[in-house]
């Protein structure tokens, strides 16, 4: 892993290179054509793309309920227990995110409020092959359930040897209502626009390749989307007291996800920097996904040695990592210094994979610097708000001068006349 | 206005035509080139586009603070008072939306929580000419202030006779920190990517033409955006007791916004339907923006006569209007039937323009059917959440079997090893 010893200003330039984005017009156009075709031709278009891209001929996209039951029974006891533990903790954490409608009646004759309503339906994209993660199904579906969503739809690309039973078992445990074996941009288009066999949803979530991500971005507006997810990231803030092997192991836990994953260590200890770099090199050799992890470590990973703790946090806020570990003494005292991060892991025993699976907080997190403005997936992602007001005659009358003044200043005469219409003839 | 008397099923097909969307590849491509150019060439690219599109040669984009002060002094007393009233009520309503961080310490040795942090900076697009609304500046900037945003930037296209003083006065009153006279897709690109003279922001909000809307959609991911806003809509649910002239006046208050605005009445009274249609025709003739309103009424407006109140609400939920008036007796009893709407106006005296200006709830609302999943602009749009966990050794140890089982099921060996690293040598 490359070790930098530069000033904060210089390091900010280094990490800025890591967060730049580019627009790929060819992919945008290809995806746009797929979406237009599915919006127009429905099931037939989806079927053709599945033949073309996934090499399958599907009469029916649906996976029936009994196959989910069979999958749940087929997995081993340890996996069932682990999924159940994850479910329990995801629910106990996300329950705290449930929000209330409010009403303000502080002024007699005026009622103002905001009503919270669950989305009617959401769609969950689950990638195929080795990237099909049962844990992600729980992370996406359970907060939707807590929000009160009544229809949860899952799509996942067809597989030569059938859909992974662990994926179907997780869908069963999470209470997914409908499962379809379709994938790619055509699946996103089907969820957004609906087809004869798949009713449209109000929001689409879940990770996917560049075609899925681009399709989600393009249907945004027609439906809601969770986020445009990028490669995994882990940023670790550690001082000389941290254990180099543990830090290295945590960096590698994200490096193994994707060649473009970003493992990052920011420390004030040169000794730790060198020890972690050495340990990463050693541990890398024995990993099953070593090729992926090596690419991530060499091409996207870095270790930065900073002068002091404040600079460490300032640089990490610039990065805005998806996962942030704070391996410093009394880590909670630093929570106020963290401005931009998806999920924070405090102290030696909050190893990142704990949060990926069973701690309860979500593992669908903002990536690519978007933690500057975006949040983890949560119950709040599955509700919408509706404002309401009721005024009596006297309170409207009192506001007529201000309303008509503003309306006429903005050149909107019909706005002014609408409120004046209530007081014609002094009634 | 066209009056329909059809079944609910048939009417759902009619309103579906009103909510379809199309992708315009030419505009997408033109905007994509502008964004790429501004991202690469910064101020120089923005300056060239301003020359090309707005016919001005700008040495400096910035409007200095003293011009905002002058504008505030230059507007008349009634306008100042109206803006101040709007500000006061916007603040008193949106204060209720402020959310708290939470922490869960219900299990000894485990700490889990979610921290709420304001966005560092936001950008507000204000259209030029007659569509430059001072009220919208208050609606956008004040919730951001309440959230704790420290840098609010406004952009607005340069005008031959200078920026509207009411716009600059509203910016002053709302506490906008920086104002630049640039517009179009190039302004959105400058806010998203930053230039030498304009630092980038974390989120972009505010209405604009198709180029602005497309640019916002394309920079989504690099920054957050509020929504892709469409033409104004008003849906009115009224029974035979409603006043036809008042209903007609409220329909026209939205029709005057845009030729593509959608005024809609859903009623169970044929008498009211005909009386409203007649009153709309009469009132139309005397409106200053009559040409715009006529187009909206004829091309996009409709009146639907339904069999009963339940069908009225079912159809309106299908439409998911930006503004929804309930002109029925005891309107608040129907709040539970409203699933999809941006802002709801209950009863005769909650005329829509009341909400546009001074009632306090926001007037930046979901359009085009997006109220199915989107919310009014609020304080929650200007914060992000960061999860955090801390576990002690015993609690991590208890979860190791479940974590390693799930990790290895998902083929992520490095995830399993990271947690196991904490327990090497039984320490």
TrEMBL record, chains A, B:
Its cofactor is Zn(2+). Zn(2+) binds at residues 254, 257, 356, 415. The active site is at 322 (proton acceptor), 323 (proton acceptor). GO terms for molecular function: histidinol dehydrogenase activity. It catalyses: L-histidinol + 2 NAD(+) + H2O = L-histidine + 2 NADH + 3 H(+). The keyword Glycoprotein does not apply. NAD(+) binds at residues 125, 186, 209. Substrate binds at residues 232, 254, 257, 323, 356, 410, 415. Pathway: Amino-acid biosynthesis; L-histidine biosynthesis; L-histidine from 5-phospho-alpha-D-ribose 1-diphosphate: step 9/9. Keywords: Amino-acid biosynthesis, Histidine biosynthesis, Metal-binding, NAD, Oxidoreductase, Zinc. Binds 1 zinc ion per subunit. Coiled coil: none annotated. Its EC number is 1.1.1.23. Catalyzes the sequential NAD-dependent oxidations of L-histidinol to L-histidinaldehyde and then to L-histidine. Belongs to the histidinol dehydrogenase family. This is Histidinol dehydrogenase. It comes from Nicoliella lavandulae.
């Amino acid at each position: 892993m490359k070790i930098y010893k530069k000033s904060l200003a210089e390091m900010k330039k280094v990490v800025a290179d890591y967060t730049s984005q580019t627009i790929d017009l060819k992919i945008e156009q290809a995806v746009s054509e797929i979406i237009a075709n599915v919006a127009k031709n429905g099931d037939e278009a989806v079927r053709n793309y599945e033949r073309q891209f996934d090499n399958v001929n599907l009469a029916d996209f649906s996976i029936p309920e009994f196959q989910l039951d069979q999958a749940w029974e087929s997995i081993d006891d340890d996996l069932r227990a682990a999924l159940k533990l994850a479910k329990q903790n995801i629910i106990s954490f996300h329950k705290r995110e449930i929000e209330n409608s409010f009403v303000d009646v502080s002024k007699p004759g005026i009622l103002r409020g905001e009503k919270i309503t669950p989305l009617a339906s959401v769609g969950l994209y689950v990638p195929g092959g080795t990237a099909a993660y049962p844990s992600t199904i729980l992370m996406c579906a359970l907060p939707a359930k807590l929000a009160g969503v009544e229809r949860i739809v899952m799509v996942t690309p067809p597989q030569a040897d059938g859909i992974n039973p662990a994926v179907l078992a997780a869908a069963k445990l999470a209470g997914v209502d409908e499962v379809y074996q379709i994938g790619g941009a055509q699946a996103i288009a089907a969820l957004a626009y609906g087809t004869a066999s798949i009713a449209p949803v109000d929001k689409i979530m879940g990770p996917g390749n560049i075609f899925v991500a681009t399709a989600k971005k393009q249907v945004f507006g027609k439906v809601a989307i969770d986020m445009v997810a990028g490669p995994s990231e882990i940023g670790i803030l550690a001082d000389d007291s941290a254990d180099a092997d543990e830090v290295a192991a945590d960096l590698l836990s994200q490096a193994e996800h994707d060649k473009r994953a970003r493992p990052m260590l920011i420390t004030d200890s040169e000794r730790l920097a060198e020890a972690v770099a050495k340990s990463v090199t050693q541990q890398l050799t024995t990993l099953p996904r070593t090729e992926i992890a090596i690419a991530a470590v060499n091409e996207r990973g870095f270790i930065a040695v900073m002068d002091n703790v404040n600079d460490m946090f300032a640089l990490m806020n610039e990065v805005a990592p998806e996962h942030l570990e704070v391996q410093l003494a009394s880590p909670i005292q630093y929570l106020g210094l963290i401005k931009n991060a998806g999920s924070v892991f405090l102290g030696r025993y909050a190893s990142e994979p704990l949060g990926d699976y069973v701690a309860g907080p979500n593992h669908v997190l903002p990536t690519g610097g978007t933690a500057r403005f975006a949040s983890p997936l949560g119950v709040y992602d599955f509700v919408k708000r509706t404002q309401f007001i009721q005024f009596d005659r006297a309170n409207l009358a009192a506001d007529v001068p201000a309303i008509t003044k503003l309306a006429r200043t903005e050149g909107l005469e019909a706005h002014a006349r609408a409120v004046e219409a209530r007081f014609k003839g002094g009634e």
